[in-house]
Amino acid sequence: MSAGHFPLTAAAIAAVAVASAGYALAGNITVAGQSDLNLPAIIMFLIFVFATLGITKWAAGRTKSAADFYAAGGGITGFQNGLAIAGDYMSAASFLGISGLVFANGYDGLIYSVGWLVGWPIVLFLIAERLRNLGKFTFADVAAFRLEPTPIRILSATGTLVVVAFYLIAQMVGAGKLIQTLFGLEYLYAVIVVGLLMIIYVAFGGMVATTWVQIIKACLLLGGASFMAMMVLAHFNFSPEAMFQRAIEVHPSGSAIMAPGALVKDPISTISLGIALMFGTAGLPHILMRFFTVSDAKAARKSVFYATGFIGYFYILTFIIGFGAITLLLQDPTYFKAGAVAGPNGSFAPADMAGSGNMSAVHLAEALGGSLFLGFISAVAFATILAVVAGLTLAGATAVSHDLYASVIARGKANEYQEIRLSRIAAVVIGIIAIFLGYVFENQNVAFMVGLAFAIAASCNFPVLVMSVFWKGTTTRGAFIGGFLGLLSATVMVVLSPSVWEKTLGYPAGSAIFPYDNPALFSVTLAFFGIWLFSITDRSQRAGKERAAFEAQYVRSETGIGASGAAAH
Amino acid sequence: MSVDTDDVIRRVQSDPRFHELVRRRSRLAWLLSALMVVIYFGFVLAIAYHKAFLAQSLFGGVTTVGIPVGIGVIVSAFVLTGIYVARANSAFDDLTKDILEGLKT
């Protein structure tokens, strides 16, 4: 089958997706008054959908080889990749969640956002260029460079799929809830629309389409957030001091919002979360995959530099937006629940905000720019979700086709065409599973899942990657046992932690067996220790060969000699 | 990979410039990584043990010391990546190119 068939099919499925959205909207109108229909938002979102489907059609025509499908043919520039990485990383949760956290707690929101940024320099200094020099499409390529492919790829693919699954469930549930609130679309339809669109982007357009969806989304999000922050600052004649002054006057917590508060409970939990965020970022499969879309190590480095700049700038914007919400919304009953009662100074409690405090950025958009800007920000939030889930789906599909199928099952005997076809099928299956899980988990507490995804990325993917690249002594046995120790210990500790044991499974408060909400401090240590211990005690002949093969790997990882170059033909 | 891969590896390893490249780049990479870890976990520990320091007024107004410190951590991440990329994309890449050129002779 030629690639020419795909655009046609893509267009057909797109029509179905849009039609189902339309049907859902129509269905919702009949359920009178359930939720307001946000017309400007829907129109702007449809423009985004048609533009991205057009790009998908164009991308499908260009996607011929495995290198095109997994890595956009290596033809993405450092700047474009920097934007795309930022697009992959800035989720709706970080936009709405962090500005909501600042709105409710002030300074504590900034502390939280800082943690999400500090992993990027580590990615650059230790991972990015070595990954680019040693790998082809996935981080498993790097770990399996001199180690036994079958066990290492099983481990890496498991790490990838588990991270993708938890991240994806959290995104799907968040997406359904958010779209329900913003667009007046029913939860199930919202989840189906998100799922169908991400399947189309990934299955037909591969990495080219996914990359451009990320880039467009990053530009829209950065543009929208910049505009909001500027409007807020303009309101105070660009004096942050005046903004903070007003915020203290109207916020129920008063001057406490200007200093660290209750968010940091105990140092162990905070350090553990910090480790999960710092090293988890360097182990996220959908992020690591992005380094193969550029031509060489130089461009890989540049992309992290740009990404760090965009993401850091974005977090500063969310801080201003959160304070803007405090100063401009807290005394306006329009944005609060019907029964909410204002305090003595005329301010409402942040927790009483209509649609929860996570809606503060959305409400602020309306306060600043009316219903048109509200529609724009709502559409941006929707686009943000789509871009993030598309990146995750592609990473999951690649783990199935490139790591599991091509290397483990077909043992390198599969041709490129079979591999890409399997990847497309995997994208469809992952999408359907994501829709199903999004539906099942609708009323579950999924807040812990993103933290768990980072903890597993930090405890399994990151140690295996770092040890195989930097330590000569690493053997297959060590990496395999240590990696699974990290993965299992992180998962078990999260299940036994207060946030799952008590808040999700419903056991009484104080009964959690593991006292901290984040396991990374312990599980990352355990993974590194496991890799070391089971490597030095590995006396097999294979282990000897693997240690001897380190020198060649080392030369290539440091110089790029023999690296798969720009894959564009 | 070509048949003479082992030969290439041996020649690169016997090139003193390769060891210079690795030494200089690793030193910078680990130094900057350590700096980022110290800055971030220093910030976290300040939050845990020196709340009062971050809560004090910056210049007599309501803006606290914690605001520039927190934003400073964000900016430092960007600056550190900038330092590394500037060095790696010029000096280190030139050195790498010299090593690769040397292989042709």
Give the SSE layout.
The complex is a heterodimer of chains A (569) and B (105).
Chain A lengths: L4 H26 L8 H24 L3 H6 L6 H12 L2 H14 L1 H11 L1 H16 L4 H5 L5 H35 L3 H49 L4 H11 L16 H15 L3 H4 L8 H33 L30 H50 L6 H25 L6 H24 L5 H20 L2 H5 L17 H17 L4 H8 L1 H10 L10
Helix pairs in contact in A: 1-2, 1-10, 2-10, 2-15, 4-10, 4-14, 5-6, 5-14, 5-15, 6-14, 7-12, 7-14, 7-22, 9-10, 9-15, 9-16, 9-17, 9-18, 10-14, 10-15, 10-16, 11-14, 12-17, 12-20, 14-15, 15-16, 17-18, 17-20, 18-20
Chain B lengths: L4 H9 L2 H34 L1 H5 L10 H39 L1
Helix pairs in contact in B: 2-4
Structural features, described:
- The complex is a heterodimer of chains A (569) and B (105).
- By secondary structure, chain A is an all-alpha fold.
- Chain A is 74% helix and 0% strand.
- Chain A has one domain (5-338, 345-559): Sodium/glucose cotransporter (Up-down Bundle).
- Chain A has helices spanning 5-30, 39-62, 66-71, 78-89, 92-105, 107-117, 119-134, 139-143, 149-183, 187-235, 240-250, 267-281, 285-288, 297-329, 360-409, 416-440, 447-470, 476-495, 498-502, 520-536, 541-548, 550-559.
- Chain A is globular.
- In chain A, 63% of the residues are buried.
- The longest helix of chain B has 39 residues, at 66-104.
- The model of chain B has no long low-confidence stretch (mean pLDDT 89).
- The two termini of chain B are 19 Å apart.
- Chain B has one domain.
- Helix content of chain B is 83%, strand content 0%.
- Chain B is mostly helical and 105 residues long.
- The radius of gyration of chain B is 22 Å and the shape is elongated.
- In chain B, helix 2 runs antiparallel to helix 4 (66-104).
- Chain B contains 4 helices and no strands.
- At the A-B interface, helix 6, helix 7, helix 11, helix 12 and helix 14 of A face helix 1, helix 2, helix 3 and helix 4 of B.
Strand content of chain B: under 5%
By DSSP, the count of extended strands of chain B is 0
Total number of strands of chain A:
0
Chain-averaged pLDDT of chain A: 87
Through-space gap between termini of chain A: 20 Å
What's the domain count of chain B? Answer: 1
Q: With helices defined by DSSP (H or I, 4 residues minimum), what is the helix count of chain A? A: 22
Question: How widely separated are the two ends of chain B?
Answer: 19 Å
Gyration radius of chain A (Cα, Å) is: 24 Å
Tally of separate domains of chain A = 1
> Helicity of chain A, in percent?
over 70%
CATH topology of chain A: Sodium/glucose cotransporter
What is the averaged pLDDT score of chain B? Answer: 89
Percent strand of chain A equals under 5%
- Supply the CATH class of chain A: Mainly Alpha
CATH level-four homologous superfamily name of chain A: Sodium/glucose cotransporter
- What structural category do the secondary elements of chain B indicate? mainly alpha
How would a textbook summarize the main sheet of chain A? none
Backbone structural class of chain A? mainly alpha
Task: Give the number of helices of chain B.
Answer: 4
